[in-house]
Structure formats: C-alpha cells, structure tokens
Design goal:
The protein is an all-alpha fold and about 130 residues long. The chain has helices at about 1-10, 10-15, 25-40, 45-55, 60-70. The protein has a domain at about 20-80. The chain has 5 helices and no strands.
Length: about 130
C-alpha cells in the first residue's frame, strides 16, 4: 500500500481512511430536505427547518445546514457584487511592479482611504 500511495501521489493516511457511515435517520431527513428545496430553491436552512416543522419533523437549524452541506444543497439568491469595479473609475498602474526591493526604507506605502478631504465633506475649495 505504501508504494501504491507513493506512485499515486497521495498520503498513506488517505488510503486507509473510510468515511463514517451516515445514520439511517439522517438519510431519511436528507431525502425529506430535497423535496422542499426543489419547490423553494431560495430557501436556506432556517426556512427549510420551518417547512419541515410544519410537516412534523422537529430538528435544529444547524443540523439542517449540516445535512444541506452533505447533500450539496445550497440556497440560490443574489449575492453582493462587491469586487466589481465601476467602469467609470480610473485604474492607476502599479509603478513598483518591476522594482527589486533590496533594503529597508527603499519603498514606502500609504493608505489614504480614511483621510477626510474638503470635497468629501461637501465643501468645494476653488
């Protein structure tokens, strides 16, 4: 086994690992979770728990979330697009890209995002 694991490039521990079996009760809950998820694909763990409670199944939100993760079910909703740049904003080049920093105090950097300006306060300076 050691030689086979070495040839495949995997660790020996992963060769001997067997995942723990899923409990029979969890398997039935997973199948019951799948049905409301098909009706309401936007439902997260809290909403699915409420739907299952209406059917008489009493379980916690974290257990619902764990089972959702195991069966690869995820709520579909619009996520924030915070890393998309605005097309009107100018992109400045990074001028130190090819500079080799070889000594201390050769390059300094500063973050000026929190410095208030007159324009930011609504005061226009001619």
């Amino acid at each position: 086994m050691t030689k086979q694991a070495k040839v495949l490039g995997v660790s020996r521990g992963s060769v001997y690992y067997w995942p723990p079996p899923v409990a029979e009760g969890d398997l039935t809950l997973m199948t019951r979770l799948d049905q409301p998820h098909l009706e309401f694909p936007f439902a997260e763990a809290r909403m699915l728990r409420a739907l299952l409670r209406q059917e008489g199944v009493d379980m916690g939100r974290k257990h619902v979330a764990t089972l959702m993760r195991q069966i690869c079910v995820e709520a579909l909703y619009r996520r924030p697009r915070t890393t998309q740049r605005h097309p009107g904003h100018k992109v400045y080049p990074y001028l130190l890209w090819e500079l080799a920093v070889t000594r201390a105090n050769q390059v300094w950097a500063m973050d000026i995002t929190s410095i208030p300006s007159l324009k930011g306060l609504g005061i226009w300076w001619p």
